[in-house]
Amino acid sequence: MSQSIAVIKGDGIGPEIMEATLRVLDALDCGLTYQHIDAGLGALEKHGTLIPQESLDAIEKYGIALKGPLTTPIGKGFSSINVQLRRHFDLYANVRPAISFPGTRSRYDDIDMITVRENTEGAYLSDGQEMIDDGDTGISVIKVTRKGSERIVRYAFELAKNNGRKKVTAVHKANIIKTSSGLFLDVAREIAKEYPEIEFQEMIVDNACMQLVMNPHQFDVVVTTNLFGDILSDLCAGLVGGLGLAPGANIGEKAAIFEAVHGSAPDIEGKNIANPCALLLAAAQMLDHLGMTEKGTAIRQGIRTVLETRRDMVTPDMGGTGSTDSFAQALVEYVQSH
């Protein structure tokens, strides 16, 4: 069965790592058809906007997008492309796995956890932000709703249930922010009662940061609000070697966008040394989402094997002597032989 997906190559190193990723997907014979669409700096130059309406229409039509890193120009008048996409498609669940791989700068071995972050409300809403007193005072409103809290916590518990996970930790600051964070915690406690087979833990965010550094193996699935999730998911990426190994999924009821969460790295654009692992792992998440879990597992196992046994094919940032192309080639050879 053929599945069409929207593909956003991205800016900077985006086209290079996307080409590598699509080579691997083709080698897996996933039956995917790619519809390339414009977004980012290229779209701004070509269409006068960072996200043309035809690109939004394509994502809505296909329901699935694979996205390379995009650059939002610095300065007033440009809002984050990622935030725009999340709001437009109501992609309420940001799902960030953190998995240890060999031959990396990982601080720990055998980490396998997932951060589930509420993606559409909380501290990142532009509504309620203003400058007053002639620019001497900035005001920002944190808005958390019962609906938003219920659906993200339930998503986390369903993810745990469907993937054999044993524990969900709700991270909050309800001891101080008693309204918005308190509401989130109250809802998490209510939802947890519906899943007695899954251990439920609640943890204040500052303690969670310390515990993640000291003993990350105690965590399985972490669910939290927008700002805390943004910070914690990058902390977790640091535990396993950095953003070069950090994929992300933005999932809603009608659309899902899978991405490398790192930046566009214009300083190494065109040098064929960019690490494609984050986008490859995002593609594995996409395959899981599409029900092709065996193929998603093959990508993850292939990356592990290449990092262990093909150091001459691994990109320099991970201590290898290879290139973006050679890493993709080694992974293609792995999936074709297994």
Automatic annotation (TrEMBL):
Gene Ontology MF annotations: homoisocitrate dehydrogenase activity; isocitrate dehydrogenase (NAD+) activity; magnesium ion binding; NAD binding
EC class name: oxidoreductase
Keyword field: Oxidoreductase
Signal peptide: none
Annotated GO biological process: isocitrate metabolic process; tricarboxylic acid cycle
Keyword Oxidoreductase recorded: yes
Keyword field contains Oxidoreductase: yes
PANTHER family: DECARBOXYLATING DEHYDROGENASES-ISOCITRATE, ISOPROPYLMALATE, TARTRATE, ISOCITRATE DEHYDROGENASE [NAD] SUBUNIT ALPHA, MITOCHONDRIAL
Family: Belongs to the isocitrate and isopropylmalate dehydrogenases family.
Protein name as catalogued: Homoisocitrate dehydrogenase
Source organism per UniProt: Vreelandella titanicae
